[in-house]
Amino acid sequence: TKPGSVTHAADDVESGIKNGTYDPDFFRMYPNPSNSGTVNLHILNTTEKPWIVSFTNTMGQLVQSVQINGSGNIERNINLADLKNGLYFVRITDINGNQIASSKLELLKK
């Protein structure tokens, strides 16, 4: 995959992604890399079910998580100012822990 690209996972579990509509623009996170300590998260076509966005470091340690509620096109600004510069893995899971999407994020705060 290209830097900043998103890997999507889909299965038979009801995940909030409508069947047959696995749009590559379903999940966007920008800027990436982030030099401000904040990122914008854009999720398309969600359901009312809560989703969890988790950030883990390269050692596999969960360093931050955010619950996303609502439906439609969701835009959230996520403050990562407490995290150190480096590479982080971002996962979106449903409330049951089923992975919906994943990506990488690089923090380069000044």
Say how many strands there are.
8
Low-confidence stretches: 1-23
The shape is globular
User: CA-to-CA gap between the ends?
Assistant: 27 Å
Strand proportion:
over 45%
Biggest β-sheet, characterized? Answer: 5 strands, antiparallel
Mean pLDDT over all positions: 78
- Quickly count the helices: 0
- What's the order of the H and E elements? EEEEEEEE
User: What would you call the structural class?
Assistant: mainly beta
Strand order in space, largest sheet:
1-8-7-4-5
Radius of gyration: 13 Å
Oligomer: single chain
Notes on the protein architecture:
The protein is mainly β and 110 residues long. The protein is built from no helices and eight strands. The strands form two sheets. Strands 1-8-7-4-5 form a five-stranded antiparallel β-sheet, with no helix packed on it. Strand 7 and strand 8 form a beta hairpin. It is globular, with a radius of gyration of 13 Å. The relative contact order is 0.29. The N terminus is likely disordered.
Briefly, what is this?
0% of the residues lie in helices and 49% in strands. The chain is mainly beta and 110 residues long.
